[in-house]
Design a protein that fits this description.
Largest sheet: 2 strands, antiparallel
CATH class: Alpha Beta
Strand order of the largest sheet: 1-4
Radius of gyration: 11 Å
Number of helices: 2
Structural class: alpha+beta
Number of strands: 4
CATH architecture: 2-Layer Sandwich
Low-confidence stretches: none
Mean pLDDT: 90
Shape: globular
Length: about 60
């Protein structure tokens, strides 16, 4: 089952998740943190690195489109 990360709206763009992602799926653009879901492997490293606890790893089919 494929998983991906989602970033909550309260993100402060500290960059910890960007640095933790082993494949570069997390990035910050114009102050907004985002995840390339097709690239994300769902490893959870970004979730663990987030000091605010707002990143969540979810099953891709559970994502709202």
């Amino acid at each position: 089952m494929k998983k991906t990360a989602i970033v909550g709206s309260n993100c402060v763009s500290c960059g910890n998740c960007v640095n933790a992602c082993p494949i570069g799926a997390v990035y910050i653009h114009k102050g907004i943190t985002a995840v390339v879901t097709d690239k994300c492997i769902g490893c959870g490293k970004c979730e663990k690195a987030c000091p605010a606890g707002i990143i969540e790893i979810v099953k891709r089919e559970d994502m709202a489109i």
